[in-house]
Amino acid sequence: MRALQLPDWKSDPKLVEVDQPEPGPGEVVVKIGGSGACHSDLHLMHDFEGEELPWSPPFTLGHENAGWVDTVGDGVSAVEVGQAVAVYGPWGCGRCPRCRVGVENYCENPEAAPIPGGGGGLGLDGGMAEFMLVPHERLLVPLPDGLEPAVAAPLSDAGLTPYHAIRRSLPRLLPNTHTVAIGLGGLGHVGVQMLSAMSATTIIAVDLKEEALAGAEADGAHVTILSDDGAAEEIMTATGGKGADLVLDFVGADPTIGLAMSVVRPMGEVTVVGIGGGTFEWAFMGVPYESSLANTYWGTRPELIEVLNLGARGLIRPRTTTFSLDDAVGAYEQLDAGDLDGRAVIVP
Questions:
Q1: Mean pLDDT within 228-250
Q2: Quick check: 339 pLDDT over 90?
Q3: 202 and 96, same structural domain?
Q4: Contact assessment for residue 9 and residue 42, using Cβ atoms and an 8 Å cutoff
Q5: DSSP for 119-179, written as a single string
Q6: Each residue of 260-290: pLDDT tens digit?
Q7: Residue ranges of the alpha helices (H) in 199-282?
Q8: Which of 197, 261, 287, 345 would staple 315 via disulfide (CB 3.0–4.6 Å)?
Q9: Residue 12's closest CA among 338, 335, 344, 329?
Q10: pLDDT per residue as tens digits for the range 297-320
Q11: Per-residue pLDDT tens for 44-66?
Q12: The domain containing residue 240 runs over which residues?
């Protein structure tokens, strides 16, 4: 079968022929109906040299995946052939206390996982192929009625990641509060939709592109602000001078983290979701009192069930552009150039 693989660090992906996987005991092979192209894949292609991660190429790309159960190994009983499923992306050990309640994104024993700190498309073969091997049935979530795999695939990361970041702060998103979303790309535009569907907060959307701001307004943002030298002042004006109760940074670069910390109010939260490599220099008198700065990684398996149900009900809908497997390299080129609106989904 054909697969889009990363052959080495600091290299471009290539479409190659590989053997079709066969399931062993407890394993499942999924026929892929959609696999999302994520900006973090570009970091794999351009930024790593082999020392930063406990695994290495070659492997098939694609860590946002959904499709249909094709074949199952001995002992599999939770899913059946032909069933539509999404693949939960962060693969933990399955046995530690966190994994047992579905928090495999923060597995406490990663050395016992199928691959330490990774998963399908992150060290092991992912979904940018006709078929994908999933090492355990617990990593599959049945799709709700009415949700097609090509739509569900990006929800497994571009939906799950902002959902986890928002859900942890939901109790503070009351009427008369303000939430700032910085960066309205693949994750950020879904985050705005979730804030609108799940909370009463006033949503302030910030981006470098006017067209992204227009999309955010359609997604439910109450205020849109161009990310320039005057953005911080505009945000403070929009919050009545108080600052934001929550800032979600979907970029994670030095300038965006700095902007976030400059507009958060005392006792507010800044959550960095994007993996932009940014840093922030903390000083006791340099930040609002009792403000917090946190990062998050992906989300939990129970949260994926919730996200898929939000998608099935039409409350969230990632903007997607679909590509064939033949055009997958071009999809990443468009993603790298910033020419995509929302998410690219490869449909083998």
A1: 98
A2: no
A3: no
A4: no
A5: EETBEE--SSBSEEEES-GGGEEEPPTT--HHHHHHIIIIIHHHHHHHHTTGGG--TT-EE
A6: 999 999 999 999 999 999 999 999 999 999 9
A7: 210-219, 231-238, 254-263
A8: 197
A9: 329
A10: 999 999 999 999 999 999 999 999
A11: 999 887 777 889 999 999 999 99
A12: 169-295
Structure tokens at 8: 């080495």
Do 315 and 275 lie in a common domain?
no
pTM: 0.96
Give domain status of residue 121, yes or no.
yes
Same domain, 36 and 149: yes
On whether the CB atoms of residues 164 and 296 are closer than 8 A, the answer is: yes
Structure tokens that stand for 247 in this block? 């800032």
**% pLDDT > 90, the chain:** 95
CB atoms < 10 A from the CB of 24, how many? 11
Quote the number of domains for the chain. 2
Cα dihedral angle (247, 195, 126, 94), rounded to 10 degrees?
90
Q: Do residues 173 and 246 touch, judged by C-beta distance below 8 A?
A: yes
Tell me: do 144 and 9 sit in the same domain: yes
Q: What DSSP character marks residue 21?
A: P
Instruction: State the burial class of residue 83 (Cβ atoms within 10 Å of its Cβ: 0-12, 13-18, 19+).
Output: middle
Query: What's the CATH code of the domain at 238?
Result: 3.40.50.720
Query: Residue 49: what pLDDT?
Result: 78
The rounded distance, in Å, linking the Cα atoms of 105 and 99 is 8
Does residue 193 share a domain with residue 105? no
Strand partners, 31: 68, 131
Burial string for 135-164 (b: 16+ CB within 10 Å, else e) reads bbbbbbbbbbeebebbbbbbbbbbbbbbbb
Q: Residue 164: inside a domain, yes or no?
A: no
- Which residues partner with 334 through β-bridges? none
d(CA 140, CA 94): 13
